[in-house]
Specification:
Length: 307
């Protein structure tokens, strides 16, 4: 067994019922959801476990996802499973910060609540857009959109899957140009804003004001920043990177390759869905990926890691 990474999904993976078993059957899980309720002034169990429209609204989604993934992380650690490194996609980076000992569960949950509100409010609905570009080389996409003002790459997810973001008309024009240039498919995404584009720069700056009151610690283990795709080991790097992250490209594929090159061969995706597992299959099929969605998954992970 080589090295272990905890990896955390971002917005879009949320699903009704996520984390419910952890809340109902573990003390640490219940305490995490109750903490979120106390901090945010609304019932986190009700948001996550009952059918409602709020779970898919950015200002609620982000806090719900972080609460759920942190609750799961605590149970993994109670079973003796601890990471050597951590990373999270976009919103998931806050869970990685928690796993790395950089910020507390309290600060992670409270900060992403502010982050979600700021991102939701920064650009009026309908002005921005995002689109997935399938089966086209990242360098080719970069070349084509370089000539279109108002659009940029939002996510380098994995080979063959890139997401672009920006002004709605610019994204639509980019999709036309990319298809003409050979992209297998472009797909407009059902999102409420142009996330990870320069249109969100103001939201990042406002987030910086929120971060002023957040205490950060030197990472106990390295985590990989979305903005650079490289390890962060000094606490002074944390806040500037989180501010930039809101409007910068998420270098997920690069982040995974950084960890693979460092001897990480087991990745534990913590949170709902298997999005990151799917990306890893296209990045390096030889890597082991375990998923934590249900309570029984913790026991499976323990057995797999001890085999």
């Amino acid at each position: 067994m080589g090295r272990i990474a905890f990896i955390y999904p971002g917005q879009g993976a949320q699903v009704c019922g996520m984390g419910q078993e952890f809340y109902e059957h573990t003390e640490a899980g219940k305490a995490t959801f109750d903490l979120a309720t106390e901090l945010l002034g609304f019932s986190m169990p009700e948001l996550c476990f009952t059918e409602n429209d709020r779970l898919d609204i950015t200002e609620y989604t982000q806090a719900a996802m972080v609460t759920t993934s942190i609750a799961m992380t605590k149970i993994l650690e109670e079973h003796g499973i601890k990471p050597d490194v951590a990373a999270g996609l976009s919103l998931g980076e806050y869970c990685a910060l928690y796993a790395a000992g950089v910020i507390s569960d309290r600060d992670a949950i409270a900060t992403v609540r502010h982050r979600g509100i700021l991102m939701q409010q920064e650009v009026p609905v309908g002005q921005g857009a995002m689109a997935a570009v399938l089966s086209m080389d990242a360098a080719a996409i970069e070349d084509i959109i370089a000539g279109i003002q108002g659009v940029q790459i939002a996510n380098y997810n994995c080979p063959g899957q890139i997401v672009i973001s920006g002004e709605k008309k610019a994204v639509e024009l980019a999709c036309e140009k990319l298809k003409e240039a050979g992209a297998k498919r472009t797909l407009m995404l059902n999102v409420s804003g142009p996330f990870h584009s320069r249109m969100l720069t103001g939201a990042g700056e406002k987030l910086g004001q929120v971060l002023e009151s957040v205490e950060v610690h030197t990472p106990k283990i390295p985590y990989v920043a979305n903005v650079t795709g490289e390890y962060v080991t000094e606490k002074e790097q944390v806040k500037p990177l989180l501010i930039k992250q809101v409007s910068s490209s998420v270098k997920w594929e690069q982040s995974m390759r950084t960890m693979l090159a460092d001897g990480v061969d087991t990745f534990i995706e913590i949170g709902p869905g298997r999005t990151l597992s799917g990306f890893m299959k296209k990045i390096d099929r030889t890597a082991t990926v375990l998923n934590i969605e249900k309570l029984e998954d913790v026991d499976k992970a323990v057995k797999a890691l001890r085999a």
